[in-house]
Each structure stands twice: as C-alpha cells, then as structure tokens.
What we know:
single chain; alpha/beta
Amino acid sequence: MKIVLKILKWVGIVILAIVLLLVILLFILSKKPFVPGNYTKTVETGGELEAKYLEMGQYEVKYTEADASEDWGKFITYYPAEMETADKTYPVVVMVNGTGVYASKYPALFKHLASWGFIVIGNEDPGTCSGDSADATLAYLLEQNDDPNGVFYQKVDTAHIGITGHSQGGVGVFNAVTQQPHGNLYTCAVSLSPTEMELADAIGLHYEPDKMAVPTLLLATDANDVITPEGAQKVYDAMTVPKAMALRSGMDHGKMLYSADGYVTAWFLWYLQGDGDAAKVFSGDSAELLENPLYDNRQIDIEE
C-alpha cells in the first residue's frame, strides 16, 4: 500500500508540474506578438514596388489607447507623430483582427501602416465576424475627430477610410462594409484569408461579398488556409466592384496577416492617398501584381 501511495504521490507531482508548465507556456504565448517586429526586413518580396511598400514609411509613429465597451477591451491607435502639430487630416485604416489575435498582438503591422501616413485603429474583440466592433471602432474615432480636447480633433480624413482584416477579421471586413451603420464611409477594403463561405455559414460567420460597394483586394494562400483557391475564386467572382486577387504560394494561414503587407499598403496608398506609384501594382499594361512570381491566380478587374 505504501508503494502505491508513493507512486500516486509522484504521479500527482508530475501532473501538477505539467499543468504548471502549460499555464506558463500559455502565458508566454499570450504575450508574444503575432507579427514579428522585424517582418518588414525578413518577408520575401517578388517585385520592386512590393519591396518598396514593405519598407517602413517616412513618418515617425506614436501610439494611444482608450477603454472600449462590450468585450472589445480597448481601442488601440497608431498615427504619424507629426499629426499632433500638423494642420491637415490623415486617412484611416480600420484593422479587424482574427480569432484571438487582438490588436495588441501585432503592433508591428500597425506601426508599419502608420509610418506611411495613416491613422491605424483596432480593438481587442475576440469575435469580429459581424463587423460590430469594427463599426464601433470607427465610430469612436469619428467622435474623437469632433472632440476639441482630444489628439485626433479635426485630424481624420473622413473621405478616405479603408478597412482590412485577417481570417475571421477578413469576414468582418465584408460585414463592416455591407451590414454596419458606418459601412458607407469606407473608401476601399482588403480581406486577408477570409473563412470560406460554406464553412463560414456552418459556424455562424455568414458574409455576402456580392454586396460590397467599394474596391476590394482579396489575398490568401494557395493551400493550407481557411479558404481554398476555389473558395477564394468564388468570393472574388461574387464581387462586382473594382477588385484584385492573388494567392501567396507556400504561405501558411497565420503569416498571411503580414506576408503580403507590401501590397496591402500599396492598395491603401493608391485609394486613400492617391499614390501614383502604388497604383502601378494594380493598374496599367504591366501591373506588378500580375507578374509577381510569389503569387498564383493573380487577377485584376479595375477599369482604367
């Protein structure tokens, strides 16, 4: 009996040790950024313009956050530091996070876009598919634009607002534009690896790409994603707006959040800032996207 009790004691110690290790591991993972801080220097590019827009922009960047209601935690905003003293407005990019990948998990991506002259804002919503929290985030920023006591007072270019999201957030992009009260304020959109429509319907993440009313860029992987190449084509074909699509070769789902950021940045620079070089990625006789060897199924439907 003593031997049995001794064995049980050691088994209990081992189990407790394993549980503690798992708790520590989960804690470490919860604090680890989802996007590498040096991704702008390490991600492979397949075109001159892609490389240009993957680099950091010219603006120094500052950060602020504010408490949010519901389960959205907080609103996190990055912006060009000069905004605090400059007498001009700045275009906006609303970030819609994927499942469990809150805004605080990928500051490098926010900083990169902000360094190109955007106000970039997101939240900590664990379930973003409906677009509710994205709409609330934009509403918050618009309120700040009207608040004479806030840093964003009369700094928001309300005529140039974009939205992007990854995974469940990629679904949230469609719903924020097509289903939410402020959807008509968006100028353009980027959806990164949205959940396949049939799967989305099965798990309660319904969205309707055919209702999109703004130019939309769709990017995903060519395999091992939550959306298949056939599913991406179905989403693309449903849209009747100016649009472009490409599938990154050999990339996994999580890394799609940042691996195509050069072209995401170019899309926003074109539509929100009128950048002529960025437009060359998606327009003209030799649009760079169509020639980039890192992507498959490259398509552009944009009237010149």
